[in-house]
Amino acid sequence: MNLDTRFFQLLEKELGELQEQLAVELVTGKASDWPDYKWRVGKLKGVRDALSVASEINKRVIGLDEKKER
After folding, report:
1. CB of 58 within 8 A of CB of 47?
2. Are 19 and 47 in contact (CB under 8 A)?
3. By C-alpha distance, which of 25, 69, 66, 68 is closest to 44?
């Protein structure tokens, strides 16, 4: 396993765990008020966006996202 793949696996694991934790906090009513709720939702969205970007970069690094020239 190369370093790029290992890095992505660890990043995906850590961000996935953070995403789960944030989702549980939202569902269990940890937000103290509307601004806190919005902040938590924004943080969750940021983690999801980071996972998406990391996934796209990983595809490019391992060569799965190469565009074919016509």
Report:
1. no
2. yes
3. 25
Spatial distance between the Cα atoms of 53 and 47, rounded to a whole number of angstroms? 10
Q: Is the dihedral of CA 20, 23, 27, 33 positive or negative?
A: positive
Which two structure tokens, joined as six digits, stand for 69?
A: 């020239």
pLDDT tens profile 20-42? 999 999 999 999 999 999 999 99
Residue 41's SS3 state is: helix
Is pTM, for the whole model, over 0.85? no
Within a domain: 57: yes
Range of 42's domain?
Answer: 11-62
Tokens of 29: 């009513």
Report the domain count for the chain: 1
